[in-house]
Amino acid sequence: MFKILIAALIIFLLIWANKIRIYLKWQKKAEAENKPFYRWPESVHQEPEQRKRLRQAQAENFQVEAVGKNGRKICRMKAASDPDFYFVALGICQCPEFKATHKPCKHIYKIALNKGLIQAAPEGEA
Ligand SMILES: [Zn+2]
Known about the structure:
Layout: H1 2-34, H2 48-59, E1 62-67, E2 74-79, E3 86-89, E4 92-93, H3 96-101, H4 106-115
The chain binds zinc ion.
Protein backbone atom coordinates (compact mmCIF):
# COMPACT_ATOMS: atom_id res chain seq x y z
CA MET A 1 0.00 0.00 0.00
CA PHE A 2 2.76 2.39 1.01
CA LYS A 3 4.72 1.56 -2.15
CA ILE A 4 1.75 2.44 -4.32
CA LEU A 5 1.47 5.79 -2.61
CA ILE A 6 5.17 6.51 -3.18
CA ALA A 7 4.86 5.49 -6.83
CA ALA A 8 1.80 7.69 -7.27
CA LEU A 9 3.63 10.58 -5.67
CA ILE A 10 6.64 10.13 -7.96
CA ILE A 11 4.43 10.01 -11.05
CA PHE A 12 2.62 13.11 -9.85
CA LEU A 13 5.91 14.96 -9.35
CA LEU A 14 7.22 13.85 -12.75
CA ILE A 15 4.10 15.13 -14.48
CA TRP A 16 4.49 18.47 -12.75
CA ALA A 17 8.20 18.68 -13.52
CA ASN A 18 7.34 18.11 -17.16
CA LYS A 19 4.62 20.74 -17.12
CA ILE A 20 7.00 23.27 -15.59
CA ARG A 21 9.66 22.37 -18.16
CA ILE A 22 7.22 22.90 -21.04
CA TYR A 23 6.07 26.17 -19.52
CA LEU A 24 9.63 27.49 -19.13
CA LYS A 25 10.45 26.51 -22.69
CA TRP A 26 7.34 28.27 -23.93
CA GLN A 27 8.18 31.36 -21.87
CA LYS A 28 11.72 31.48 -23.24
CA LYS A 29 10.41 31.24 -26.77
CA ALA A 30 7.90 34.03 -26.19
CA GLU A 31 10.67 36.17 -24.71
CA ALA A 32 12.87 35.64 -27.76
CA GLU A 33 9.97 36.48 -30.03
CA ASN A 34 9.21 39.69 -28.18
CA LYS A 35 12.82 40.79 -27.91
CA PRO A 36 12.83 42.96 -31.08
CA PHE A 37 10.33 45.30 -29.46
CA TYR A 38 12.68 45.98 -26.55
CA ARG A 39 15.31 47.50 -28.83
CA TRP A 40 13.57 50.78 -28.00
CA PRO A 41 13.93 52.14 -24.47
CA GLU A 42 10.73 52.85 -22.57
CA SER A 43 11.37 56.61 -22.91
CA VAL A 44 10.85 56.41 -26.69
CA HIS A 45 7.23 55.41 -26.14
CA GLN A 46 6.66 58.52 -24.04
CA GLU A 47 7.60 60.93 -26.85
CA PRO A 48 4.55 62.89 -28.07
CA GLU A 49 5.00 61.60 -31.64
CA GLN A 50 5.08 58.03 -30.34
CA ARG A 51 2.04 58.51 -28.12
CA LYS A 52 0.23 59.70 -31.23
CA ARG A 53 1.20 56.56 -33.11
CA LEU A 54 0.17 54.38 -30.24
CA ARG A 55 -3.24 56.01 -30.22
CA GLN A 56 -3.49 55.52 -33.99
CA ALA A 57 -2.78 51.82 -33.43
CA GLN A 58 -5.65 51.71 -30.95
CA ALA A 59 -8.10 53.76 -33.00
CA GLU A 60 -7.61 52.51 -36.55
CA ASN A 61 -8.95 49.33 -38.07
CA PHE A 62 -6.25 47.00 -39.34
CA GLN A 63 -6.37 44.20 -41.82
CA VAL A 64 -3.79 41.61 -40.83
CA GLU A 65 -2.51 38.66 -42.81
CA ALA A 66 -0.13 36.12 -41.33
CA VAL A 67 3.01 35.32 -43.29
CA GLY A 68 5.34 32.35 -42.96
CA LYS A 69 5.08 28.97 -41.34
CA ASN A 70 3.79 29.85 -37.91
CA GLY A 71 2.73 33.32 -38.93
CA ARG A 72 3.88 34.80 -35.67
CA LYS A 73 7.04 36.67 -36.54
CA ILE A 74 6.05 38.53 -39.67
CA CYS A 75 2.68 39.62 -40.93
CA ARG A 76 1.23 41.87 -43.60
CA MET A 77 -0.78 44.74 -42.29
CA LYS A 78 -2.92 47.48 -43.69
CA ALA A 79 -4.49 50.21 -41.61
CA ALA A 80 -7.65 51.90 -42.85
CA SER A 81 -5.63 54.98 -43.88
CA ASP A 82 -2.78 53.04 -45.54
CA PRO A 83 -2.59 52.87 -49.32
CA ASP A 84 -1.34 49.27 -49.26
CA PHE A 85 -0.26 46.30 -47.15
CA TYR A 86 3.12 46.47 -45.41
CA PHE A 87 5.29 43.69 -44.05
CA VAL A 88 5.56 44.15 -40.30
CA ALA A 89 7.46 42.41 -37.50
CA LEU A 90 7.83 43.56 -33.92
CA GLY A 91 11.15 45.30 -34.59
CA ILE A 92 10.77 46.48 -38.16
CA CYS A 93 8.17 47.73 -40.61
CA GLN A 94 8.05 48.44 -44.31
CA CYS A 95 5.93 51.58 -44.05
CA PRO A 96 7.29 55.08 -44.85
CA GLU A 97 6.86 56.26 -41.27
CA PHE A 98 9.15 53.59 -39.92
CA LYS A 99 11.67 54.17 -42.69
CA ALA A 100 11.77 57.87 -41.82
CA THR A 101 12.09 57.62 -38.03
CA HIS A 102 13.19 54.06 -37.19
CA LYS A 103 10.89 54.26 -34.21
CA PRO A 104 7.84 52.06 -33.69
CA CYS A 105 5.04 52.95 -36.10
CA LYS A 106 1.35 52.27 -35.59
CA HIS A 107 1.75 48.82 -37.18
CA ILE A 108 4.42 47.78 -34.69
CA TYR A 109 2.38 49.27 -31.86
CA LYS A 110 -0.64 47.31 -33.03
CA ILE A 111 1.26 44.04 -32.70
CA ALA A 112 2.74 45.12 -29.35
CA LEU A 113 -0.74 45.99 -28.07
CA ASN A 114 -2.10 42.64 -29.20
CA LYS A 115 0.73 40.86 -27.43
CA GLY A 116 0.35 42.96 -24.31
CA LEU A 117 3.88 44.38 -24.57
CA ILE A 118 2.74 47.95 -24.14
CA GLN A 119 -0.12 49.53 -22.28
CA ALA A 120 -2.82 51.24 -24.27
CA ALA A 121 -2.88 55.03 -23.97
CA PRO A 122 -5.82 56.18 -21.88
CA GLU A 123 -8.73 57.53 -23.87
CA GLY A 124 -8.84 61.26 -24.26
CA GLU A 125 -5.11 61.67 -23.81
CA ALA A 126 -3.96 64.78 -25.67
ZN1 LIG B 1 4.60 50.60 -40.08
